[in-house]
Amino acid sequence: MASLGPAVSSLRSSLSLLDSSISILDEGVSDFPRLCKVLQTQQHFELLPEPTLREAQQSLVDEIVPAINQLLSTVDKYVSQLGRKEESLRARSELLEGRLNNNRRSSSFGGVRQPTRSSRPSHTPGLTDTKILEMKRMQQKKERLQYAIERLELQCKQRERELRKSMAIVQD
């Protein structure tokens, strides 16, 4: 038996070495199903032929271009409306500035001044407080009517300009 002892011990060491190799391989292969799933390829994009892609692009262009043209015409109309509004506001500003200058000139160059209590002589016959108030109301009414006339004239000029513009557009 003495001759089999070293063979048995060598066999046992081989078995232990084989056992440790199996455990190492088992640890390495235990994650194999997950690795298979991770490494599995998936097709995320579908490949299309170039003519099909160009047809799709052309259909998009055919859809989008009319919508863009409509939006541009809407913007043009809105810009022209804003331009007309700006013109009318400038004209109104000029009108009000002219009225303001007129009022300043008339008051500084001897325009009609309303008598006040301090400037009115106490012995003026026939000018009572009610008559003074009535004169003030009449003066204010006169100014309102003048302003209304100027405003209507301005509106008339504005409409004439718009009519000329619309006629110019029709002739083009």
UniProtKB/TrEMBL annotation:
GO CC terms, sorted: DASH complex; spindle microtubule
Polar residues bias: start-end ranges: 101-127
Gene Ontology terms describing biological process: attachment of spindle microtubules to kinetochore
Chain segments annotated as coiled-coil in the UniProt record: 135-169
Keywords: Centromere, Chromosome, Coiled coil, Cytoplasm, Cytoskeleton, Kinetochore, Nucleus
Listed Pfam families: DASH_Spc19 (PF08287)
Principal localisation: nucleus
Annotated signal peptide: none
Subcellular localization: Chromosome, Centromere, Kinetochore; Cytoplasm, Cytoskeleton, Spindle; Nucleus
Region annotation Disordered: where it falls in the sequence: 100-127
Family as reported in the entry's similarity comment: Belongs to the DASH complex SPC19 family.
Name of the protein: DASH complex subunit SPC19
Organism annotation: Exophiala spinifera
Taxonomic lineage from the root: Eukaryota, Fungi, Dikarya, Ascomycota, Pezizomycotina
